[in-house]
Write a structure and sequence with these properties.
Shape of chain B: globular
CATH superfamily of chain B: P-loop containing nucleotide triphosphate hydrolases
CATH architecture of chain B: 3-Layer(aba) Sandwich
Number of strands of chain A: 4
Number of strands of chain B: 10
CATH topology of chain B: Rossmann fold
Helix content of chain B: 25-40%
Radius of gyration of chain B: 18 Å
Largest sheet of chain A: 2 strands, antiparallel
Structural class of chain A: mainly alpha
Number of domains of chain A: 1
Shape of chain A: globular
Number of helices of chain A: 15
Oligomer: heterodimer
Order of helices and strands of chain B: EEEHEEHEHHHHEHEHEEHH
Largest interface: A-B, 23 and 31 residues
Distance between the termini of chain A: 46 Å
Strand order of the largest sheet of chain A: 1-4
Helix content of chain A: 55-70%
């Protein structure tokens, strides 16, 4: 198939995501690990971890846009799915510390501190990396499926669904805060030493994790893009636009909603699992309701139902956040709110549709200017007052 | 002829208001039936009960000899009952072609839809429907950009590609111009025989132009049934309609 210039222009969003994935998966790790410190192209270790983190957020943004932008389900608990994936990875990392913890025990430090004598049953198997990775995807998926099954079957939709999800993530946070729940309470899981035998302190391990995140983003984007382009994707957007009608077309709407919802949660789990070894900690603060709201803001800022836009949204909001939380620590949330209001009012289609929006605005301004010129011209040529003739023909 | 739909002693009430009052109605396969009646007579509620949107308080609906009263909406559609709503409801963000593709008969399973492509037979069905409703030249326009009349036809087309045995059509000509009404009655008349069609309509001229048989509803009950001229001569119908 011949690729024309118009094809490239039409699919520039795919190119953009491809470039971002390549940056995280290849360019940044190579420039970090493959160049000397003195090389002007060298990328610092700090920057590698930053890119890796932002790439994980980007995966969440894509997953959120998939379920909100295309299936019309506004989730305010995607932070929970992200955290569940993170906890699964964190449990593996805790187990792989072995007896090198503070208490020199085979049990994780917090269990020794709580005077637990043996590993709880739900920690079994997490010394295997493969098992932990499967759980990082399966647990968020199962939680999402079970919750979604009851919610969608009862036809809870729109804002009601969003409110319930907000309650779910809050309840989960309270649950994980308890020491007795067995995930380290409010301290969470931390002090990780190595992953698959590689020390987490090593820059090369960090570079590899950043690369893995880049690959993860590519996988998540490809899956979502493929589903959206399939016939099922068109059914999903139809569910978003006119759910009742879809039902009367013979579709079991609940199964479509459950599919999109569960897939999105699984991708969040993947993001969480990639995130935790890079930041070195997972604790219940990831389940703060405001975190989940922020994910929705990334998507709204970037542009719903574009898949590529929310990645830009995640990068922009997090970039702004890291600067503003330092410059204006007490009032940075107001900036976030203002950004949300600005986007909603001025760029309702989000950043990715901003060029089209600006072109439309420019046309509007041009037309207004032309009309004003017309009025001015009519005034200057119109005869003295008292005359009947009005320059009708001079309107543009 | 065999009965395709048997509505038996259906009762529905909303907050004490009896929308349907032990209503009984039988449809023969292949007929084109018009249901008329003043506002609040229960016409739309009857459609809601048949399609599973409203659960009746008592009574039963049998389709093709099988009970469908308590089935979910999508299952009733799968058994072969298609419905066109009063307000045109198409998918505005999809093209005309995609609207038809969404409704074309076949598995509606999510995993089937994920991996399947449009089969040649499905494409033929869609092309036929496009020709019949006269929207072939609009196939790749967004459905939201169509005129009111075109949306109504698209919705009828969406019903057709579902290949239902029974079509329920609610006020197909409301808000249409005279030429659009004529085209709509042509489309509906061409469907009778192959499908059983029920049309709910206020427009009496339109009903006269298409109906073999008319059912008049009043206060949730069948008031009269027969050919248009028989029904019009019925004194009870005249009383309800003219207040005479």
């Amino acid at each position: 198939m011949k690729v024309t210039r118009t094809d490239i222009l039409r699919h520039w969003d795919i190119g953009l995501v491809g470039a971002l994935c390549a940056t995280a998966a290849f360019i940044v790790p190579v420039l970090n690990a493959g160049t000397a410190l003195t090389n002007p192209l060298h990328v610092s270790d700090f920057f590698v971890t930053l890119v890796g983190k932002l790439t994980c957020y980007s995966i969440v943004a894509v997953a959120m846009d998939f379920v909100w932008g295309y299936a019309g389900i506004l989730s305010l608990c995607h932070g929970l799915f992200f955290a569940l994936g993170g906890y699964a990875m964190g449990m593996y990392l805790m187990r792989s510390i072995g007896a090198e913890g503070m208490y020199r025990s085979a049990l994780p430090d917090f269990m020794v501190f709580l005077d637990w004598k043996q590993l709880p049953w739900y920690w079994m198997g997490f010394d295997s990396f493969g098992f932990a990775m499967v759980m990082a995807l399966v647990v968020p998926g199962v939680v999402a499926y079970v919750f979604g099954f009851f919610a969608f079957r009862s036809r809870i939709n729109g804002v009601y669904f969003s409110i319930v999800t907000q309650a779910v993530v809050y309840a989960a946070m309270l649950l994980f805060f308890r020491n007795a729940t067995g995930f380290g309470g409010n301290n969470g899981l931390t002090d990780f030493k190595r992953i698959l035998g590689f020390p987490l302190r090593e820059p090369s391990t960090r570079a590899a994790l950043c690369a893995a995140s880049g690959v993860g983003l590519g996988v998540a984007y490809t899956i979502c893009k493929a589903v959206v382009a399939s016939r099922a994707g068109r059914v999903l957007t139809a569910v978003r636009d006119a759910q009742t009608k879809v039902r009367f077309c013979g579709y079991d709407v609940v199964s479509y909603q459950l599919f999109a919802w569960t897939l999105s949660a699984v991708l969040c789990g993947l993001a969480g699992a990639l995130y935790v070894p890079q930041v070195g900690i997972i604790n219940p603060s990831e389940m703060q309701p405001s975190n989940s709201v922020e994910i929705a803001i990334w998507v709204a800022v970037g542009g719903r139902a574009t898949l590529a836009g929310p990645i830009l949204g995640a990068l922009l909001v997090n970039g702004a956040k890291s600067w503003l939380t330092v410059a204006f620590p007490t009032i940075w949330l107001y900036f976030l709110g203002a950004l949300f209001v600005f986007v909603t009012l001025v760029l309702p289609g989000g950043l990715l549709r901003a060029p089209a929006r600006l072109a439309a605005l420019r046309r509007l301004v041009a037309r207004g200017a032309e009309m004003l010129r017309g009025v001015a011209a009519r005034r200057s040529t119109s005869p003295a007052p008292g005359s009947v003739a009005v320059g009708k023909g001079q309107r543009p | 002829m065999t009965a395709i739909l048997e509505v038996d002693k259906i009762a529905v009430s909303f907050d004490g208001f009896r929308a349907l009052d032990n209503l009984t109605l039988t449809l023969e396969a292949g007929e084109l039936r018009c249901v008329v009646g003043p506002n609040g007579a229960g016409k739309t509620t009857l459609m809601d009960v048949i399609t599973g949107k409203t659960r009746p308080d008592s009574g039963s609906v049998r389709f093709d000899g099988r009970e469908i009263t308590r089935l979910p909406e999508n299952e009733i559609v799968r058994r072969g009952i298609g419905r066109k709503f009063q307000r045109p409801t198409v998918f505005p963000g999809h093209t005309v072609f995609e609207n038809l593709e969404l409704t074309v008969s076949g598995s509606k399973n999510v995993f089937h839809k994920l991996f399947s492509r449009l089969a040649p037979a499905e494409r033929r069905a869609i092309d036929n429907a496009l020709d019949l409703i006269g929207l072939a030249s609009h196939a790749h326009r967004l459905a939201g950009l169509l005129s009111h009349g075109q949306k109504q036809w698209l919705e009828i087309g969406m019903l057709l590609v579902q290949e239902p045995k029974l079509l329920l059509v609610d006020e197909p000509v409301a808000g249409m111009s005279q030429s659009e009404i004529e085209k709509t009655s042509d489309i509906l008349a061409s469907l009778a025989g192959r499908h059983t069609v029920v049309v709910v309509e206020h427009d009496m001229d339109f009903v006269r132009s298409i109906a073999d048989k008319v059912t008049v509803l009043h206060e949730g009950r069948v008031l009269a049934e027969g050919s248009m001229s028989e029904v019009q001569a019925d004194p009870r119908v005249m009383e309800v309609y003219l207040g005479a």
